[in-house]
Structures are given as structure tokens and as C-alpha cells.
Amino acid sequence: MKKTYIALLGSILILASCKMQHKSELEHQLITLEDGLSAGQVYVHSDIKALAVNTFQYGQWFDVRFANVSGFTLEQGDMFPDLDITVFNTSGEIILKQESLLGGLSQPEDAVLYGTLTLANPILSGQSYKAVYRLYDTKSDHELQTEMDFELLPDSQITITPDGLMAKEVYLFNSDTNSVLFGSNTPKASNISMDFQLLEGYQKKNGRIQLGMYTQLVDSRGRVLTENKDALPNFNVEGITNDQVLKATLSLNNGRFNSPLRWTVRLWDKNSAAAITATATLNIENN
Length: 287
Prior knowledge:
Blueprint: E1 11-12, E2 16-18, E3 31-35, E4 38-46, E5 55-57, E6 61-70, E7 78-79, E8 81-89, E9 94-98, E10 107-108, E11 112-118, E12 127-137, E13 143-153, E14 158-163, E15 166-174, E16 179-180, E17 185-187, E18 191-200, E19 204-205, E20 208-218, E21 224-228, E22 236-237, E23 245-251, E24 261-269, E25 275-285
Protein name: Lipoprotein
């Protein structure tokens, strides 16, 4: 196990059009205001099923899709849409904003337009937000606006015990799929990590931050599978930025496990008594 720096950041992907159907999903609550443009259908599509209506998990993504949109000025059967997405916190402050994502490029008249929002830093779990999608015609003043209030929850499978150190986000990450690992089901032969982001509470000594990391993996019979007293023996840095992640890594082979596994990671400050412990339950998928 080792530490690395990788950032999981909130982002809005460059938008595109599509003709695919959305998967079965909860009916999220949206408000759409039409001013010249009209959509036959506006819906939310996401990578996994949402936890509840307008409720998602940190690291998840979703997009708002606009189908059967009318009101565009057409040229040779094509429309020229553009889209802005803005995310607000409950105080009305802009957390994330991206403009002109489609660039006004031509799209077939029957295209489904969408924009994908990754729910990660600076969008934080345990808080509520409003996402505003503004779709507009670059050939006229026609537009429509869709708003969705949503809540972002942390991973319920991870128990966090802060003791002087605080991490605003702790989550499991599957490096094979380059995505957050949701729920407790974990594929065999996978490489996963427990990521600590936005760490606070450490002290500096001679202008340096020194951290240690204890890791332990235990099966359902109480047998210790792996243990590392300090996975960060040489961690000595001047600072940790908001987009840096402290990462404990775990490689699972194709063998059979007495599942579930309990994975404990403890970060501690070598310049003080502060620490934070996170424990995750891993149900290994034995096929």
C-alpha cells in the first residue's frame, strides 16, 4: 500500500448530442422554464441508480437531457444550440460554472442534448445544491432553463472517526475503471483505494507536514490479510492543496475471500496527536 496524489474534482463535461435511451431511474424533480424553446422531455440520467429523489452520492455523475426540443432556428435541418451549467450552494453562491459547452455547433434536429456533471470537489457531500441548465439557440433569443435542487451524501459504507484530523471527503476509488466505488460490493481482481481529500487539523513543524498511515485488512473470520504499520514512511511536505488526495491502495486477486472484508485506514499527524480513522466494509464478488 502506498500514497499517491490524484484529484477527484467536480466537472462539467463538454456536451454532446445523443440518440440513446436513458436507463430506468427515479423520477427526479425538475423545474423547466421555457422562453421560445420547448422540450418534449427533460430527464436525469446517471451512472448508478440514485439513492433517492434528487439525492446522489459523492463521486457520482448525472446529466440533464433535453429531448424533442423545438423552437430552434434551423439551417438545412440542423439546429445550433448552446448550453451553460451553473451550480449554486444554499446561500446562492456559485460553486461551479461552465459556459458555452456546445459552442453553437450544428446538431441534428432530433438530437438529444445533455451535459454531464461530476459530483466532486468543490461540490461536497453532506450539503445541498441547485444545478441550473440554460439551453439556448445561438441563432435567436430563444432559450429554456431547467433547475434541479439536489443533495449529495457521503458513502454510508465507510465509518469515519475523526480525532483531531478531519477529511471533508473519504471515498473508495476503483483505479481499474477510474471511478468511485459505490456501495459495499467490490469486484475481484480489482485495484481500489481509499481516498482522503481536503484534510484539515494537522500541524507543521519547521514548516513541514509529516503524516503516517496505518492500514489493515481483516476477513470475516477475523484473520488479518494485510497490515502496514506506516504506509507513508517518508511523507514530509510543505503543504497539501485542495486538489490533492492521500490514497491508501489495495489490490485484490482472483482468490476466494471470507467476505465481507474490513479495511481500516488510520492517518495520523506525526507532529501532534491528531488522527483520523476510516473503516470500509468490502463484500467481495466471488463469481
